[in-house]
């Protein structure tokens, strides 16, 4: 069986699979590999029942197009492969005659992909509005804080009874604490200083800081794709964003549990309304108690915290830094597993799906 090639289909962001008349896959583009989490060898040359573990509805859609000789679209189609959880997709089946190839073209688009893009746009607009509101509020609070602290200092000098200085010290310490809080609220708007960054260096820095802060009870598992190209980013801002998320996870587990740091390449991702052929995916996964459903949509809001004594700024700052880099943060959580996924666009010069010698990228799991 000769391999089918189509540069035009390779460039599509839509997942495309070509079947021959015997229902054997003759071609799959890169978007299909990404969608199904399967390599080309696990798709091409295999029948549908070998690629999908739940394929009855898909076969029915193909059969309808065959029997009627027309294009047929099946919405809310559920599929599963050995390596993926259940996928909800829309599938369009079209009889195809391409060169000497005759069969059926299957186009897949994830149902949640459109919802995710719409949610990202709403979140971006909401974040910008919140940022403007908080910055204005922070400026208004900073002005009287200086006067409040200065007045407390002057009052302390005039006190005849030294024991009363305890109260002025409380005023000054609380004013300093609020000043620090306002500085943190204003800090994320620092202009990034982009430079090529090896994400593994940033991940290792975060790992060492966490282990120093939570000695003994915290385990950190490393699962890195060591062949990822550099991302053009502000090193300190990326490290701070990763550290805020990872520290939040460690604090949620009270310093006792496991955190997995994972890096992967992501293909055909939409970030900030732009389509990127390649992106970088960083995941921070913990086995803590999880985030309650009512908190899940609020965790990135400033001053919202599910932890007693928390400022509610760590995740807000992380989100702001990632947004400044044209990226996105997503979160999935249930009791026993919370996963923060960071997606960043890769520099055009680093968009490589293979090593220079043509071999596939490798993933390395490194134990603590």
Structural class: alpha+beta
Q: Describe the strand arrangement of the main beta sheet, using strand numbers.
A: 11-12-10-9-7-13
> Could you say which overall geometry the principal axes of the C-alpha atoms support?
elongated
**Element pattern in H and E:** HEEHHHEEEHHEHEEHEEHHEEE
How helix-rich are the residues, as a percent range? 25-40%
Distance between the termini: 45 Å
Please identify, by name, the CATH architecture of the largest domain. Answer: 2-Layer Sandwich
How big a fraction of the residues is strand? 25-35%
Number of strands: 13
Return the CATH topology of the largest domain.
Heat Shock Protein 90
The pLDDT mean sits at: 77
> Number of helical segments?
10
Broad CATH class of the largest domain: Alpha Beta
Largest sheet geometry: 6 strands, mixed
- Within CATH, the superfamily of the largest domain carries the name Histidine kinase-like ATPase, C-terminal domain
Number of domains: 3
* Contiguous runs where pLDDT drops below 50 for at least 5 residues: 348-368
Walkthrough of the structure:
This protein is α+β, with helices and mostly antiparallel strands and 368 residues long. It has three domains: 7-112, PAS domain (Beta-Lactamase, 2-Layer Sandwich); 114-188; 193-366, 2-Layer Sandwich (Heat Shock Protein 90), CATH 3.30.565. 40% of the residues lie in helices and 27% in strands. The chain is built from ten helices and 13 strands. It has helices at residues 7-10, 30-36, 48-51, 56-68, 111-158, 165-186, 199-213, 235-252, 293-296, 314-324, and strands at 15-20, 25-28, 72-79, 87-98, 101-110, 195-197, 218-224, 231-233, 257-271, 274-286, 328-334, 337-345, 364-366. The strands form three sheets. The protein has a six-stranded mixed β-sheet, sandwiched between helices. A five-stranded antiparallel β-sheet has the order 2-1-5-4-3. Strand 11 and strand 12 form a beta hairpin. Helix 8 (235-252) packs antiparallel against helix 10 (314-324). The radius of gyration is 26 Å and the shape is elongated. The two termini are 45 Å apart.
């Amino acid at each position: 069986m000769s391999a089918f090639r189509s540069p035009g289909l390779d460039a599509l962001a839509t997942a495309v699979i070509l079947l021959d008349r015997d229902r054997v896959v003759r071609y799959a583009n890169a978007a299909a590999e990404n969608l199904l989490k399967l390599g080309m060898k696990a798709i091409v040359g295999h029948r549908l029942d070998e690629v999908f573990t739940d394929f009855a509805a898909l076969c029915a859609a193909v059969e309808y197009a065959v029997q009627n000789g027309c294009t047929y679209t099946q919405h809310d189609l559920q599929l599963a492969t050995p390596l993926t959880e259940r996928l909800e997709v829309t599938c369009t089946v079209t009889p195809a005659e391409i060169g000497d190839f005759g069969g059926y073209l299957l186009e897949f688009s994830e149902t949640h992909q459109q919802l995710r893009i719409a949610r990202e746009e709403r979140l971006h607009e909401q974040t910008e509005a919140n940022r403007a509101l908080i910055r204005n509020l922070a400026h208004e609070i900073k002005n009287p804080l200086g006067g409040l602290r200065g007045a407390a200092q002057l009052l302390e000098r005039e006190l005849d009874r030294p024991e009363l200085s305890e109260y002025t010290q409380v005023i000054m310490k609380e004013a300093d604490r609020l000043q620090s809080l306002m500085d943190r609220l204003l800090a994320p708007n620092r202009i990034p200083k982009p430079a090529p960054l090896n994400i593994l260096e940033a991940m290792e820095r975060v790992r060492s800081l966490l282990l120093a802060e939570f000695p003994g009870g915290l385990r950190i598992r490393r699962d890195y794709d060591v062949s990822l190209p550099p991302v053009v980013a502000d090193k300190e801002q990326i490290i701070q964003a990763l550290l805020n998320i990872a520290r939040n996870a460690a604090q949620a587990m009270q310093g006792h549990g496991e955190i997995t740091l994972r890096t992967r390449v992501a293909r055909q991702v939409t970030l900030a309304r732009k389509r990127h052929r390649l992106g970088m995916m960083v995941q921070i996964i913990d086995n803590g108690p999880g985030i309650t459903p009512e908190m899940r949509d609020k965790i990135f809001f400033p001053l919202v915290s599910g932890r007693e004594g928390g400022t509610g700024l760590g995740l807000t700052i992380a989100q702001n830094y990632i947004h400044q880099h044209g990226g996105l943060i997503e979160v999935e959580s249930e009791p026993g597993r919370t996963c923060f996924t960071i997606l960043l666009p890769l520099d055009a010069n680093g968009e490589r799906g293979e090593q220079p010698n043509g071999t596939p990228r490798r993933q390395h799991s490194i134990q603590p």
